[in-house]
Specification:
278 residues; Rossmann fold; 28% helix; eight-stranded mixed sheet; alpha/beta
Length: 278
């Protein structure tokens, strides 16, 4: 029999054996860098849509009063609950967010690496719009949607990294021609999508190298400069999940992008805080 309080030690042993990408993504403590700086309101409630295996769930439980984690598969929902068993303020639920009846609205709703899959589980003409409308409906007045997603025009794709979800080169740059069910967005496209779904105020942040394993996070009010020493190891982008080409020196191209003032367009991913009209 395995005791639930052995879970952290078991994760450390598996990671120490040489983590492959799924283990790194689901269990690396670096994942928490995405939001461990954010000033969540005291006493707040949070709905995590797509908890995965609970990589961020523990952070949420430590920062707010009540967390509801929803995950599409029962296996991952169980792992989320098992991994965070010490937090009495957590409820983990397996199922599609469209089919679950939730108790009240939430101060925060998170969607970290989920929106791009809406075409697979939303039965709507515009599944991405429908998914965001559903998330908006779950927010309490004054509530905030926290969204993270890859940028379809990210620098890594231009320089030879394969599309994160399909493994095909240049697919996002070519508009996902011939592929249904998965889609990411550029900065203006994502902003327009959020506006159509009823969100009014949006603050964009840019995790580097991306939202999965972020080492630094920039914003529209704090963009990198040529004198900013972005941490070593950021460029070239290291794709831990699949092989990639390296078509140019990403460090030098990044400097040119920063000098030209177009860093947000080429950021590898977005972190967005969006609120509906009050």
């Amino acid at each position: 029999m395995v005791r639930s309080d052995d879970a952290p030690a078991r994760i450390e042993r598996v990671m120490a054996s040489g983590p492959f990408w799924p283990m790194l993504y689901h269990f690396s403590p670096i994942r928490e860098n995405l939001l461990n700086w954010y000033p969540f309101r005291n006493g707040a409630s949070l709905l995590e849509v797509g908890s995965g295996m609970g990589a961020l769930t523990g952070l949420f439980c430590r920062r707010v009063a009540r967390v509801t984690a929803v995950e599409l598969t029962a296996r991952r929902a169980t792992i989320t609950a098992y991994r965070n068993h010490e937090h009495e303020n957590l409820t983990a639920i397996a199922g599609n967010i469209d089919d679950i009846e939730l108790d009240g609205a939430y101060d925060y709703v998170t969607s970290i690496g989920v929106l791009e899959y809406a075409g697979r589980y939303e039965d709507a003409d515009d599944p991405y719009h429908a998914f965001l409308e559903r998330l908006r409906s779950l927010l309490s007045p004054g509530g905030t949607l926290i969204l993270a997603i890859e940028n379809r025009f990210g620098l890594k794709y231009w320089s030879g990294a394969r599309e994160d979800h399909s493994g095909e080169p240049y697919q996002s740059l070519e508009g996902y021609y011939g592929r249904d069910g998965i889609q990411t967005f550029g900065r203006s496209g994502l902003e327009s999508l959020l506006q159509r779904a009823g969100f009014e105020s949006m603050d964009f942040f840019y995790p580097v190298p991306d939202f999965k394993l972020p080492q630094e996070i920039f914003s529209d009010t704090y963009l990198p400069t040529l004198n900013h020493n972005i941490r070593p190891g950021i460029y070239p982008y290291a794709d831990h999940s699949q092989p990639r080409e390296h078509l140019f020196n990403e460090r030098l191209v990044s400097d040119s992008i920063v000098a030209e003032g177009v860093f947000p367009f080429f950021a590898n991913s977005f972190l967005v805080f969006a609120t509906p009209p009050s």
